[in-house]
Description:
single chain; 0% strand; ABC transporter permease; 16 helices; globular; membrane; mainly alpha; 316 residues
Amino acid sequence: xxxxxxxxxxxxxxxxxxxxxxxxxxxxxxxxxxxxxxxxxxxxxxxxxxxxxxxxxxxxxxxxxxxxxxxxxxxxxxxxxxxxxxxxxxxxxxxxxxxxxxxxxxxxxxxxxxxxxxxxxxxxxxxxxxxxxxxxxxxxxxxxxxxxxxxxxxxxxxxxxxxxxxxxxxxxxxxxxxxxxxxxxxxxxxxxxxxxxxxxxxxxxxxxxxxxxxxxxxxxxxxxxxxxxxxxxxxxxxxxxxxxxxxxxxxxxxxxxxxxxxxxxxxxxxxxxxxxxxxxxxxxxxxxxxxxxxxxxxxxxxxxxxxxxxxxxxxx
Length: 316
């Protein structure tokens, strides 16, 4: 049994070869690692020169702050790069007039969409893995466990899958790549920035309408923060952050949160990922969709010609 032919279909094989063997990929990888290294050096310099250490010795708390800052910098880099890698994979084929040929192959719509998505995310995953030596600087000073690093990297993979599924859906929906990229960045901006602003606005409104007589045990605004990647990432760093986000003013600090922010994030956006991929698979073959719609219309409103099919004209 040839496992390579099973795991790697022709579309995926072609995407891997085109994406990984170009000089642009090597330059992108080098530039990404350099940027992350410079950010790490800058954070370490600011942390150590600002008097955060204790009398010349390095405080493990400073190491954790460096790890948090690096993780957020990586999250922002993923938010910027993933839509650029995925939002043009289908619309680009359409602009090069090669999508029709691709659809005439024996590959199914799901295979094409998932192969395009997997190849794009594999390159982004390579960029993330390449920055692991930068993170190892933090382990020199302690304060962060390898388990935290693994969990954060798994969270990055989920974020990439989310942004990638949104990007490939809009790439299938729109004919021009530039429009698909802009709309994908717009949706990403709503997820990353819009949910945070809505949370701050809702928290301000809750403070204004605060009822000091019968304060609720939990505040509903915590669910809004659970939709924000930054809030979910902080809840991974600090498990008590979920309780802080849900607890209302005057509430009991001894109670636990109704749901962890990162868990809410995973559940909600897993549904979004499945929906985006399903729509992308459905819309990549517009001819088939119109054919199905035409068949349904034919069943509901049969024409005269279709009604006479199969009838034998009497001979004179």
